[in-house]
Amino acid sequence: MPLPKAELHLHVEGTLEPELAFELAARNGVTLPYADTEELRKAYEFEDLQSFLNLYYELMAVLRTEQDFADLANAYLARAAAQGVRHAEIFFDPQAHLARGVSMGTVVEGLWRALGSSEENHGISTKLIMCFLRDESAESALETLRAATPYLDRITGVGLDSAEVGHPPVKFREVYEAAAALGLRRVAHAGEEGPPEYITEALDVLGVERVDHGLRCMEDPALVERLVRERIPLTVCPLSNVRLRTVDTLADHPLPAMLDAGLMCTVNSDDPAYFGGYAGDNFTAVHRTLGLSEDRLRELARNSFLASFLEDDEERRARYLAEVEAYDFL
Ligand SMILES: Nc1ncnc2[nH]cnc12
Ligand SMILES: [Zn+2]
């Protein structure tokens, strides 16, 4: 049995495996510019975040109906369950779908077909986090939030993703204020490719409770000290950082230094279909390559539940935490 964990940084569109992409393409009469899954997999060589995003948005063309989104989420939940994920807070990118003529209702209700029965079907509790694309306008983000208002009972929080550099958090001050007023939780990608200042801005201007990635905080000791003092969780994604060349190799990953500094890190998969591994694979990789001890792995798993938005169900959180403490690595 794998170590129980929560997944807090997972883009559902990034779980689209080549096999499912071709299946949905056939179902929806969409032609992909790749002959087969093998040729598609060969395109998974990324230079940086943008080169990945180009493929990520291109493949979304196959997602058209509620059932497509349900199938996508169910396939993820089944894989996550096999890797010890007990709770998942799942990102989705509505603007990428709205732009293709797929409605907010299709996306949210489709995902909900899987998430609403995830506990029974997969033993995983879930929450949904709606992300704004930071390379789109602030007005578009506000429109997206408006389009989501009929579905807010399904949505726990908002996030910020896509191309980071040149799109500082401050651009989204207004939509984050509006989201907070609606009672939504707030997270944002910051310090993946962007500078440490973006992390500070995400905290101070957007009021985020967790920072997604946050890796580049390590360039600013004062910021590290603050993140430690305020116990701000960072959702680190080791295999993603290698594939997107944020770090040279996994052996160079700053995760051990981050933990030694006292940062509240969690380990997550980001876009597992593209980056070579799901949550458990990321844990295994940091154990094997970075030599993280069993105590450190347990700390990462504990942090994942502590950093999750389970305030509405503290009993459940306590149960998951007890599972982590009782876990026997042998
Ligand atoms: N790692 C990542 N960074 C920014 N935006 C993303 N969208 C999907 N994955 C992402
Ligand atoms: Zn991400």
From TrEMBL:
Binding site for Zn(2+): H9, H11, H189, D270
Functional summary from the UniProt entry: Catalyzes the hydrolytic deamination of adenine to hypoxanthine. Plays an important role in the purine salvage pathway and in nitrogen catabolism.
Keyword Zinc: yes
Positions annotated to bind substrate: D271
Cofactor binding note of this UniProt entry: Binds 1 zinc ion per subunit.
The protein, known as: Adenine deaminase
Domain Adenosine deaminase, first and last residues per copy: 4-317
Swiss-Prot/TrEMBL catalytic activity: adenine + H2O + H(+) = hypoxanthine + NH4(+)
One example GO MF annotation: adenine deaminase activity
Top class in the EC scheme: hydrolase
Record-level GO cellular component terms: cytosol
Pfam families noted in UniProt: A_deaminase
Obligatory cofactor(s): Zn(2+)
Active-site annotation: E192 (proton donor)
Annotated Gene3D superfamilies: Metal-dependent hydrolases
